[in-house]
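We emphasize that the prediction below concerns an isolated chain of 251 residues; any contacts that depend on oligomerization or on bound cofactors are therefore not represented. The input was used exactly as deposited, without trimming of termini.
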Amino acid sequence: MIQVKDIKKSFHQTEVLKNISFQVEQGEVVVIIGPSGSGKSTLLRMMNFLEIPDEGQIIIDSKKIHFDRKRRKHRNDAEICSLRSDVSMVFQNFNLFEHKTALGNVIEGSIMVRKMAKEKAIHQGKEFLQKVGLEGKENNYPHELSGGQKQRVAIARALAMRPKAILFDEPTSALDPELVGEVLAVIKKLAEEGMTMVIVTHEMGFAKEVGDRVIFMDGGYIVESGPPKKVFENPESERLKQFLSRFSNVV
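Result of the prediction step, given as a token string:
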């Protein structure tokens, strides 16, 4: 469903992604773990075309975009905009419009990008807010919501785009510890319903429970990948063993 092939990316002569290749099957939940600075979030932003690779290919549902240094694609490229609408992204800092209500945030993309009639978008938006446990919060503004509620609005907004896949960039890292569970519960429910997802997270227990496959990154490389049980209980690389030693409760 999503294929990432030979992706490279440098910032100011520092190579942050080095020949990254993997694929995500329809309905699969792929969890990416690794230390800070390993390239996880940059990779996720590449998959949504918020950052443009220097080289490589990204294929979404058989639609291919090839990147190289001689033929750079730009953020306003129509092809990229079309593909981006099929792959929603949920950010660690929510990225909500502060001047819009919860419902206003959810329906924005449906109306502006999907060109959905406003009445239909409102009806659908209320359904998605209910789905993430925010029935009755339609008219609340972001400053009136907790961090967990804001992130659930962001998830409802992603769902409202009717995407083929959702990318989550450390969706709980900006939350107080007591609010983490409510957001992870929503993501877990989506996994059970068969939503294709790629999740960057530091929540190792969650990664082990929800992921169909876990990818461990370090230094811009994919060091190891496999089923959660194998990655967490029988890691092959010394680097992964060292990383997991900090999370003894999940191995």
